[in-house]
Design brief:
By secondary structure, this protein is α/β, with parallel strands linked by helices. The protein contains 16 helices and 13 strands.
Length: about 350
């Protein structure tokens, strides 16, 4: 208890010294559109049971949220940010540079980055190589050298696929879902193609540029940060494929169906065991310096990793979040109780 009081007093002193201790009695959270529904539920629960104002949650995308979060310490900056991927090393460095020194990392559960289409279509199965060939800006030509993507229909990518135009509705570059799509689908997909594997061995920069670049000829349509919009567009355009988190697929099972990826269907079992190729971890990052200054921030962190929220059968699982194993959840709970902060080691670039 003494440790917590000391932390709160130090935080208050820090904020006061910069003239930023003006009253803000409501937690502010930004970040991932995928994590947004889960954080909103936790915020509502907190407002009902913890005697604090319901936190304000904004959907800015993971990248946008990280920028806002790392802008500085003080009540004019967000207290927490949601992320559908782990914080990058460069983001951690930006935080440190701007005085956001002590960051608590909460791994709250799993999600599966899902490709989905209208239930008006027969089931579809794609390999990550096929997805790369359909969506990359440049793909191997007949001689193996990169050329501008010529494919207009799925059966041009692979004769076994449907003869219909390639149209994919997905997230913008500021979204963690977009980052995950590149890293979990496009990069491994490129590695499955012999010509791309050879390029990786010969010229790593050219290989990286290829899997990181999505075509810009209208085949890939940026549908904004609101995943519900993609679901609505799939209903209106049954020929299209959408990219969003598993929770949105589960919420809309009467309208859309998941696409198998490398033969594996996205569901709770395949995601929690990481058998589904595009399974990913979900995170919330909290500023330790704001705990004890913004009312209820400590309770928010505790609620998010509580058994009733993030455990098996918890209310977040009912919203579509795939729970973490009990031992991992216990570790997160201990980190929150002990106000443990990140060191920055092992973060992705």
């Amino acid at each position: 208890m003494t440790s917590f009081r000391s932390t709160a007093l130090l935080a208050l002193a820090l904020l006061s010294s910069t003239g930023l201790a003006a009253a803000r009695d409501q937690i502010r959270i930004v970040g991932s559109s995928t994590v947004y529904p889960f954080t909103t539920v936790v915020a509502e629960q907190l407002g009902k049971t913890a005697g604090v104002k319901t936190p304000v949650v904004e959907s800015t995308g993971t990248g946008g949220g990280m920028k806002l979060f790392c802008d500085g310490v003080g009540v004019q900056f967000p207290d927490a940010t949601n992320a559908s991927r782990r914080m990058k090393a460069g983001e951690f460095e930006l935080c440190q540079k701007n005085g956001v020194k002590d960051i608590m990392e909460l791994m709250i559960g799993y999600d599966g980055l899902s490709l989905a289409l209208s239930k008006k279509n027969p089931p579809l199965s794609l390999t990550r190589a096929q997805v790369f060939l359909a969506l990359a800006k440049n793909v191997p030509g007949p001689d193996g050298k990169l050329i501008p993507n010529p494919y207009k229909t799925w059966n041009q990518v692979d004769p076994s696929l449907p003869n219909r135009p390639i149209e994919v509705l997905g997230p913008p570059p500021t979204s963690g879902t977009r980052d995950s799509f590149h890293e979990l689908v496009l990069e491994p997909g490129a590695e499955q193609i012999p010509a791309m594997k050879a390029l990786k061995a010969a010229d790593r920069k050219a290989f990286d540029a290829a899997w990181k670049s999505i075509r810009e000829d209208g085949v890939y349509v940026e549908a904004g940060e609101n995943d519900n919009v993609i679901v609505q567009k799939l209903e209106a355009n049954p020929g299209a494929i959408g990219i969003f988190g598993y929770s949105f697929l589960e919420e809309n099972v009467s309208k859309v169906q998941g696409v198998k990826l490398d033969g594996v269907e996205p569901n709770e079992e395949t995601i929690s065991t990481l058998k589904y190729p595009a399974a990913r971890e979900m995170f919330v990052y909290v500023k330790k310096a704001h705990i004890g200054v913004v009312p209820g921030l400590d309770k928010f962190a505790q609620e998010f990793v509580s058994n009733r929220a993030a455990g098996d059968g918890g209310y977040l699982e009912k919203k579509g979040l795939v729970p973490v194993p009990k031992a991992k959840l216990a570790e997160s709970q201990a980190n929150v109780t002990g106000l443990k902060v990140m060191t920055g080691e092992g973060l992705p670039k």
